[in-house]
Amino acid sequence: VTAWGDDSTGERDDAPTGAGFVAIACGGAHSVGLRNDGTVVTWGDNSEGQRDDAPTGAGFVAIACGGAHSVGLRNDGTVVTWGDNSEGQRDDAPTGAGFVAIACGGAHSVGLRNDGTVVTWGDNSTGERDDAPTSAGFVAIA
């Protein structure tokens, strides 16, 4: 992993070394890496638990970062959240399996279920949740 830019909260100097990363996601001032063994590695800002609250263990297949929160997708289709919870980024997260994709905005997150429906949680100040589609048939989210 090579990181550049601001380093006021460890965005560069705390970046992990070594090989085996298959994905990287960047938040406001923190980052998450997904290793080929299904574990996640975090670095950068920790003011909202972006690092300390990160899950341990293997089994992750996807990662996403919001402004100060992160989401991981496990190989069993469940969603794990950590970091900031000021807008429900953690407490409002969906439970249960069946997710196939995840994405994050500044203070909200989106999940795609295997039936093509979209689930949203977190901030709703500008319709991030209320304006989400209610029909099925979606194949990707961003």
Concise overview:
This protein is an all-beta fold and 142 residues long. The chain has strands spanning 21-26, 30-35, 40-44, 60-65, 69-74, 79-83, 99-104, 108-113, 118-122.
Summarize the structure in words.
With 142 residues, this protein is an all-beta fold. Helix content is 0%, strand content 36%. It contains no helices and nine strands. Strands 1-2-3 form a three-stranded antiparallel beta sheet, with no helix packed on it. It has a three-stranded antiparallel beta sheet with strand order 4-5-6, with no helix packed on it. A hairpin with a 4-residue loop joins strand 8 (108-113) and strand 9. The radius of gyration is 15 Å and the shape is globular.
User: What structural class is derived from the secondary structure elements?
Assistant: mainly beta
Instruction: Kindly report how far apart the N and C termini lie.
Output: 23 Å
Helix count from the secondary structure assignment: 0
Order of helices and strands: EEEEEEEEE
Average of the residue pLDDT scores? 96
Largest sheet: 3 strands, antiparallel
Shape: globular
Number of strands: 9
Portion of residues in helices?
A: under 10%
Strand content: 35-45%
* Widest sheet: strand ordering: 1-2-3
Name the poorly predicted regions. Answer: none
Q: What is the radius of gyration? A: 15 Å
